[in-house]
Amino acid sequence: MSQVAHHRLIGVACVVAALLSVGVTGAQTVAPALIRRDVAPPSSDFTTYVEGELIQVSIPSNWRELPSSNAVTFAPDGAYGNAGVKSVFTHGLGMGLIRNDKGNLQVTTDDFIESQVLVAPGPRRPLRYRSVTIADRPAIQTVLTTVSEATNQPEQIEVYATLLRNGTVLYLLAVAPRDRASDYAETFRRVVGSIEIMDCESCVSK
Which residues contact 181 (CB under 8 A, 6 or more apart)? Predict the structure, then answer.
């Protein structure tokens, strides 16, 4: 059951920029020692948020909303903090917009993952995507296994991406420790399935 909707911003809905890694620049400052692996499981009660008057999404009610100027993270207590100067999260969902300069959803998503999501640079096998649907529109999804900057433990990141009417890419990062990924799978499916995108002609990027 969803609670009363909260209204916050991803910034201004029309503002588009290349965004952060698996964390939120500008998230609440938390000492790294407060990041822990024994966080509370996702609540079965959900709260509905409207971000930037553009995206509506339902989130477990025990996850905090951590907005920045152009993105938002939802994570439980103990699952977000700082790794050096970067804000990171170990369990939860990140959401934001990226400029689609190349006019290709997969190429833009590839570039975003390489530059902002994966920590270690270097040659990699090509990412494998599958076709999915977000808010009744075509989308792509891939699953990454990497090492958390916060815990130095394996983590799984599901990356989703779809196009807004103005060509901008909406991305989602669903993050969990690798050994807990199956515990979060149903929650992430419910969150992604709840998304509504409220495009409008006035939100076209200039």
Answer: 156
Integer Cα distance of 87 and 48 in angstroms = 24
Alpha-carbon distance of 180 to 54, in angstroms, equals 31
Quickly list H helices, 134-175.
Answer: none
Quote the tokens at residue 9: 């911003």
Give the model confidence (pLDDT) of 159-176 as tens digits. 999 999 999 999 999 999
Domain annotation for the chain: domains and CATH numbers: 2-200 (3.40.1000.10)
Helix (H, G, I), strand (E, B) or coil at 33: helix
Q: Does the predicted model carry a pTM greater than 0.85?
A: no
The pLDDT confidence band at residue 147, using thresholds 50, 70 and 90, is: confident
Tokens of 45: 């009660």
The residue assigned the tokens 């009660």 is 45
For 115, which DSSP code? I
Question: How many C-alpha atoms does 56 have within 13 Å on its Cβ side?
Answer: 10
